[in-house]
Design goal:
The protein is mostly helical. The termini are far apart.
Length: 486
């Protein structure tokens, strides 16, 4: 009997063992390893693509429902995505959202509420960076929290503007000012919207409320006709995803730290940095294009009717054609992470107008962006380089425009392909140079790479900063200088 019982248990246990082994093989960790990615990265990608069925659910079942149901749907799905990615650490976002609601209700439409929001939300984010920081890029709760931080600060400023008279606000401020008093459910739905919670884009509370009220559609009163535009952005995102997946094993920032990289000729080191600098941005492009498709499908991407055609670029974080073709650093900045740059311009740069100096305002804005990204020194170095490069590029453009000789030379049709090639080479070489510090984070890593290329970027642009001033005095006629002074 005993022998028979053991045999019966064995017949049950063996299939169970096989079933458990099958589940392990299907686990996210195993799947991520087979794809050459981390489990957290796979969870992130799944969560971003999950936005499409959620948007379809909203379109077909909730579009005509009461607004409180839509807020609940957004809050619940966003919280679920947060839990799927970060477990019980989702409480960080929930705590900050509740705190923000209390600040708005208790302090009202006051500058105190704005300053308190800025200090509390930024302090929480920076503390998160401090306690979770490592020497590598890790996908953790601080990644969506930096997106949330900007949302909540913008919410406080728009709420403050809503208490002012229309005449005292600019046309832009009038567009975003919040006249009503948002409820906790509305703030939660706005914060956790599934199409933007993890990686953005930024959008205002007023724009979100138009979505919930069914106003963001090209067919008044009906579900937006946005499926095709959404699929186009999704398809483009998939192209970048495939490209990044195929190239990522062969072009990595880790190679920049190897002896093999250092032992190659100087020209090779520069060219590798150039190619890597272009390619490394593709992972961001992928995420933003896919999430933009989600926003378009839900209707959040609707940006009005122009020339009889619906525009779906309200949540566009990328201008792909400009990104791929521009030979200028300012062109890349204008094409990349558009909504975050617009947020910084609207809520930070323009609010520093009282300083009376555009360059100081720009420098402080870039410092804020660096801190918002994290506490690593690499972020500061990257945005310092951006500040320097933009100043030099604008000086060069002004010099070419004001100098008759250089302006004539630049207009020669036969030479323009050569000029374009030179510009693009300089552009992406030093974009890669700047991104080296951004991606390697810590000073010991980026310093090692910068030494290997003899601090080429700093030497080149600091030299140009002084040389262009001298060239300007020689090549720009006095009458042109007098016109500029006037």
């Amino acid at each position: 009997m005993a022998s028979a019982a053991e045999g019966d248990v064995g017949t049950v246990v063996e299939p169970m063992r096989g079933l458990r082994s099958g589940f392990e093989e299907l686990s996210l960790n195993k799947l991520a390893t087979s794809l050459g990615a981390s489990e957290q990265a796979l969870r992130l990608i799944i969560s971003i693509f999950l936005g499409y069925p959620l948007a379809l659910c909203y379109r077909h079942y909730l579009f005509h429902k009461d607004t409180y149901l839509i807020h609940l749907f957004h809050a619940f799905t966003g919280l679920s995505i947060a839990y799927f990615n970060f477990g019980y650490q989702f409480y960080h976002s929930l705590l900050c959202i509740v705190l923000q609601f209390l600040i708005l209700r208790l302090m009202g439409r006051t500058i105190t509420a704005v300053l308190t929001t800025f200090c509390v939300q930024m302090a929480y984010l920076l503390a998160g960076y401090y306690y979770t920081a490592t020497g590598n890029y890790d996908i953790k709760w601080t990644m969506p929290h930096c997106v949330l931080t900007l949302k909540l600060i913008g919410l406080a400023i728009d709420y403050f503007d809503g208490g002012k008279s229309q005449n005292s606000l600019s046309s832009e401020q009038q567009k975003y000012a919040i006249r009503g008093v948002p409820s906790l459910l509305e703030v939660a739905g706005f914060s956790y919207f599934y199409g933007a919670f993890l990686v953005g884009p930024q959008f205002s509370m007023n724009h979100y409320m138009k979505l919930v009220q069914g106003q963001l559609t090209d067919i008044p009163g009906k579900i937006p006709n946005s499926t095709i535009p959404a699929l186009k952005r999704l398809s483009l995102g998939l192209v970048y995803l495939v490209g990044y997946t195929l190239l990522s094993p062969h072009i990595t920032e880790d190679y920049l730290l190897t002896e093999d990289y250092e032992n190659h000729p100087f020209w090779f080191r520069c060219m590798y940095m150039l190619v890597w600098g272009k390619f490394v941005l593709y992972k961001y492009v992928t995420c933003w294009l896919v999430t933009e498709g989600v926003c378009i499908l839900s209707g959040l991407g609707f940006n009005g009717i122009e020339d009889g055609k619906a525009r779906w670029d309200a949540c566009a974080n990328m201008k792909v054609w400009l990104f791929e073709t521009t030979p200028r650093f300012t062109g890349t900045i204008a094409s990349f992470n558009i909504n975050t740059n617009a947020w910084v311009s609207r809520y930070f740069y323009k609010r520093l107008k009282f300083l009376g100096n555009k360059q100081v305002s720009q420098g402080l804005s870039l410092l804020f962006l660096a801190l918002w990204h994290g506490l690593h020194s690499g972020y500061l170095v990257c945005f310092q380089m951006e500040f320097l490069i933009v100043i030099v590029e604008r000086q060069a453009e002004s010099l070419i425009r004001d100098s008759p000789a250089l302006s004539h030379l630049a207009s020669i049709t036969l030479l323009q392909p050569f000029f374009y090639l030179v510009q693009q080479t300089i552009h992406w070489l030093f974009m890669g140079y700047s991104m080296t510090a951004f991606c390697l984070f810590t000073w010991d890593k980026w310093l090692k790479v910068y030494k290997s290329v003899y601090f080429l970027g700093h030497v080149f642009f600091l030299s140009l900063l002084f040389i262009l001033s001298y060239v300007n005095t020689v090549m720009v006629p006095r009458k042109e200088k007098l016109k500029k002074m006037e």
